[in-house]
Amino acid sequence: MAHAFSLSRLRKPSVIPGFGLTFGFAVTYLSLIVLIPIAALVLQSASVGWDEFWRIATDARTVAALRTSFGLSLIAALVNMFFGLILAWVLTRYRFPGRRIVDAMVDLPFALPTAVAGISLGSLYAVNGWVGGLFDFRITYTSIGITIALVFVGLPFVVRTVQPVLEDLDKELEEAAATLGAGRWRTVIRVILPPLVPSVLTGFALAYARAVGEYGSVVFVSQGLPYVNEIAPQLIVIKLEESANYGPAAVIATVMLALAFVLLLFINLLQAWGRRRFGSVG
Amino acid sequence: MSAEKAFIPPDRQRPTEAPPAARAVSLRTRSPVTEAVWVRALLISVGLAFVVVFLLLPLVFVFVQAFKLGFGEYLAQLSEPYAQSAIRLTLLVTAIAVPANLIFGIAAAWAIAKYEFKGKAFLITLIDLPFSVSPVIAGLVYVLLFGAQGYFGPWLAANDIQIIFAVPGIVLATIFVTFPFVARELIPLMQEQGTGDEEAALSLGASGFRTFLFVTLPNVKWALLYGVLLCNARAMGEFGAVSVLSGRIQGFTNTMPLQIEAASKEFSRTAEVAAFSLASLLALLALVTLALKTFLEWRYADRLSSAGQSH
Amino acid sequence: MTIRRPANGREFLAGAAAAIGVIIIVVAITMSGRSVALLNVSYDPTRELFEEYNQAFAAYWREATGQAVSIRQSHGGSGAQARAVVDGLEADIVTLALEVDVNLLAEAGLMDANWRDLLPNRSAPYTSTIVFVVRAGNPKNIRDWDDLVRDDVAVVTPNPKTSGGARWNFLAAWAYAESRSGGDEAVTLDFVRRLYANVAVLDTGARGSTQTFAQRGTGDVLIAWENEAHLTVGEFGAGAFEIVMPSQSILAEPPVAVVTRYADARSTATVAEAYVEYLYSAVGQRIAAAHFFRPSDPDLVDPEALAAFPAIQMTTIDHFGGWAEAQPRFFGDGAIFDQIYLPAP
Question: Is C344 helix (H, G, I), strand (E, B) or coil?
C-alpha cells in the first residue's frame, strides 16, 4: 500500500489490534504537549543569535545562578545519599516500633506539594521558628535554608533505589564471609556495599536531578540574592518578568535543559553499567 | 529514566511486610550477620532523627500553624471566597489533567507493551522527559508559545482566545508536569504480562476493544490506580509551572498552591492561618495519597508492576 | 484473526486526530469568554487598599448606573506585573508602583504615551513615602538615616534589583546622604555602601521584607513604605513595633492608568475610567488615607486621619532626573547598586 504511514514496516507483525490508533494517539499527544513546546523553547533561544546566546549563558549572574543550583543540589544529594543509605539499611535490616510508618513516610516529598513544604520549612527554620530559633545563625533566607528544602524534595530517592537491592541481597554471602572469619565491619565494606554502589549512585543522581530543577519550595525559604543564593529557575522567572522579550529566559532555560539531559544520560549509563556489573540495579 | 520513579517496586515490599526470621533481626539478638546492639541503636536513631527533622516536623508544623487560632478561624479562612475559588480551580484543573494523562498513559502503554517496533526505547525516554525538566521551564514553554509575544500570541489575540493568564494555560502546564505518571506505571507491568491473554481472547472472537476492557484492564487496574494517585497528587500541588503563567488573578487563576503564596503575602494576623489552612488541605491530600499508596502496595503488590524501577 | 495491516495508516491518523481532539477539548472546556469583571493589576502593598476600595466602587457603580461590576485583583512585584500585562494579562486598570512600569505598557502600545496627563496629580491619586519601623521601645535608639549605618544595627530592606519599593528606599537613603555631604558623591556612595553592608536580609519584594522583619523577627529596623509601616504596627499592635520618621525622605507617586487597548477590546473602558476617577473622590481618598496612603487631595479627608502623615522634607524623583535617568544610573546591571552591594562576580 502506498500510504504515507506504513507503520507495518516499523513494527513486527502482531495479532493484537490497535497499534496504529494507540501509537498515533501517544505520539501526537506527546508531540503537542511536550515536544513542540520544548522545540519552541530551543527555537526561541536560538533566535537571539549565537553571540547573544553565549553572552547570556556566560553572564556572571547566570553562571552564579547555575553554580548555586548545581552546587547546593550536589550538597543536598550528598546529604540524601548518606542518610538515605542509613535509612534504607535500617528499614530493611532492623525491626523497631513504627518502622512501617517511617517506611511509608519516606515517600512524603513525592506527595506533599512543594509550596506546602516550602512555606512550612520557611517558618520552621526562621530565626523565630521552632528549629531556626535553636541556632544563632540564620537558616531561612540563606543557602542553608535552600539546601534543606532541596534535601526534602530529594529525600526518597536513595532510600527507594537502595532498599530493593538490599532486600534481594543474598544473606548467604554475608554468612560465608562471617564463617571465613571476616569481622562484621569488613563484611559490610567488602561484601554488602559493592553491590549497592550502582543503586546508591542512581538514587544520588535522581535526587540531584530533582533538586536542580526545584523551584516551589525554594522560593519560600530563599531571598534569591543575585550572585549569592539565587537559583537558576528563579533567575529564569526574573528574566521572564523583567526582559523586553523572551530571549534571556529561553536561553537560560535551554542551558538548564541541556545540563539536565547530560544528567539524564549519566543516570541511564549508570543503570546500564549497574546491570552489567551486578545484574540488577534499584 | 527520570526523577520521580523511585517509588518502591511493590513486589519488593512484600518481604519487609512478612519478614523471614533470618532477614530481619530484632534489636536484642546478635548473630554474626548483624551489627552490635549499639551500632544498630545508633543507626536507627540517626535514621529516625533524619526522618523526624526533615519530614515529620514540616508536616506537623503545617497543621499546628493552620489551627493556631482555633478551629473556627481555620474554617473561616477556608470559606473565604479566594480560598474557595482556589480549591474549585485546583479541583477543576486536576479533573481535566488527570483523565487526559490517563488516556495517554493507556494508549502509550498499549502501543509500547503489546508491540515490538523500532525506536521504542527512545519513545519511553521521551515520555519520561517532563520529569527531568524544571517546572519553571514547563511553564515557560507555554508562555513562549501562547504569550502575547509568543509564536501563536498574535493569532490568539486576533481570535480573542486566552490561553496563558487563564485556566487553559494552567491546565496545559499541569498536564505537562504530570505527563508520565500513568504511562510509567503501566508500561513495565503490561510489558511483563505479555500478550498471551489478549491473544487468547481475540482468538475466541472478542473484539479488540472488548479484549482491552475485559482482559487487559482488569490485569492492570491496580497499577492504573497507583499511577492516577501519584498523578493526582502532583496535579493538585504543582506550583512552579503554573506560577509562571497564571497571572495570579485572585479568585480566578490562583490555584491552591498559588493562593497559599498569595495568602502568605497578605498582611494580617490571620493571613498565616489562611495560607496554612490551605496548605493543610494539601498536606491531608498527601497523607491520604501515602496511605492509599501503601495500601495498594501491600494488598496488590503482585498486581502492580515489578519492573517499576527500570525502564 | 486477520492482521489488518493496511488499516494502520488510517488508524494512526485516527489516533492522532483523537489526541488533537482531547487537547482541544481540554482547552475548550476551560476557556471562558472575556469576562465582564474588571481586572486591576497592582503591586503587593496595595492588597488591603483595593480589597476595600473595590467594594466601595462596586456599590457606587451600582448606585450610579444600576450595573453590577465585579473587580478582580492581581498582585505581585510592580515590574513583573507590568511585564505580565505586556505579555497578555488583560488588565483593564493598572495601579503600579513606578511610572517606568506604566511607561512599559505605553511603549507596547497598550495605552497613549501621555497617560500621565489624563488624571489629576500626574495620575497619582495617592502618594507615599519611606519611613522606618523599629521594635517596641526602639531598643537601638534609631532616629534617622545616620543610625542605620551604625555597626550594631541590622537593616531589613528589599532588593532594588527586583523590587520597585526597594528603589525608593535606596534613593531616599541616597538623597539624605547627598544633602548631608553637600553633594559629595564619594561620601554619599560610602554612606549608602555602609548602609547596605548592614542589611541582614534582602528580600525580593517589599511585602517579603515586612514579613521578614515583623513575622520572622529579623533585624532592628525595617525601611518600608509608610503604609506598610502602619500596617505592621496596626496588625501587631503598637506594643510590638514603632514607626520612626526620618528627617528626610522621598515622595513616591504610585501611578494608576486605564489600559485602553484591553479595556476597549473588552468594552470596559467606561467603567474602567470611572474606577480610576473614583479614586480621587472623597470616598476614594478616605479609603486611601485609611490604608495610610497619603491622599492627593487632603481637603477631602478628615483632619484626624491626616494626623498619621507628619510633614517631612521629601525629595522627588525629579531630583534624580526622573526614572528614565535614575533607573540605569543606579539599578542597571553593573550600575551603582551592583557596585556597592553585590559581591564581585
Answer: coil
Are C14 and A61 a contacting pair at CB < 8 A? Answer: no
- Interchain contact C19–A (C-beta under 8 A): yes
- What is the predicted pLDDT for the residue at B278? 96
Q: How many CB atoms lie within 10 A of CB A26?
A: 27
Top-confidence residue, B72 or A127: B72
Which residue did the predictor score with more confidence, C324 or B94? B94
B68 touches chain C (CB under 8 A): no
For residues B285-304, average pLDDT: 86
Q: How far is A78 from chain B (nearest CA, A)?
A: 14
Same domain for C84 and C142, yes or no, is: no
Return the CATH fold of A50-278. MetI-like fold (1.10.3720)
Given this model, what pLDDT does residue B275 score?
Answer: 94
* Interface residue B112 vs chain C (CB under 8 A): no
Whole-angstrom distance, CA of residue A54 vs CA of residue A67: 17
Residues 6+ apart with CB under 8 A from C155: C148, C195, C196, C198, C199, C200, C219, C220, C221, C222, C223
Weakest mean pLDDT among A124-128, B16-20, C70-74: B16-20
Residues C195 and C229 grouped into a single domain = yes
Q: Which three cell numbers stand for residue B273?
A: 492561618
* B15 vs A96, A107, A167: nearest CB: A167
A93 to chain B: which residues are within 8 Å by CB?
A: 24-25, 34
The 3-class secondary structure across chain B, one letter per residue, is: CCHHHCCCCHHHCHHHHCCCCCCCECCCCCCCCCCCHHHHHHHHHHHHHHHHHHHHHHHHHHHHHHCCCHHHHHHHHHCCHHHHHHHHHHHHHHHHHHHHHHHHHHHHHHHHHHCCECCHHHHHHHHHHHHHCCHHHHHHHHHHHHCCCCCCHHHHHHCCCCCCCCHHHHHHHHHHHCCCHHHHHHHHHHHHHCCHHHHHHHHCCCCHHHHHHHHHHHHHHHHHHHHHHHHHHHHHHCCHHHHHHCCCECCCCCCHHHHHHHHHHCCCCCHHHHHHHHHHHHHHHHHHHHHHHHHHHHHCHHHCCCCCCCC
Q: Which residue has the cell 510509567?
A: B184
Checking if the pLDDT of B26 tops 70, the result is no
Q: Is C38 inside any structural domain?
A: yes
Mean pLDDT value across residues B216-227: 91
At residue B12, does pLDDT exceed 60?
no
Rounded CA gap, B128 and B107, in Å?
15
Look at residue C14 and tell me if it is in a domain. no
Cell 537558616, residue?
A139
| DSSP calls for C286-327 | HHHHHTTPEES-GGGS-HHHHTTS---EEE-GGGGTHHHHHI
Neighbours of chain B (3+ CB pairs under 8 A): A, C
C213 and C322 part of one domain: yes
pTM higher than the cut 0.80: yes
Domain of C91: which CATH number? 3.40.190.10
ipTM, two decimals, is: 0.89
Task: Note whether residue C103 is domain-resident.
Answer: yes
The pLDDT-based confidence of B7 (bands split at 50, 70, 90) is: very low
Report yes or no on C317 lying in a domain. yes
**pLDDT score recorded for residue C169:** 94
Lowest-confidence region among A87-91, B20-24, B130-134 = B20-24
Which residue range forms the structural domain that includes residue C36? 31-124+254-306
A29: distance to nearest CA of chain C, Å?
5
Chain A interface, best mutation among B136, B202, B234, by max A CB count within 10 A: B136
- Please report residues of A whose CB lies closer than 8 A to that of B117: 7, 10-12, 19, 23
Of A15, A29, A243, the CB nearest to C3: A15
Q: Would the CB atoms of A24 and C16 count as touching at under 8 Å?
A: yes
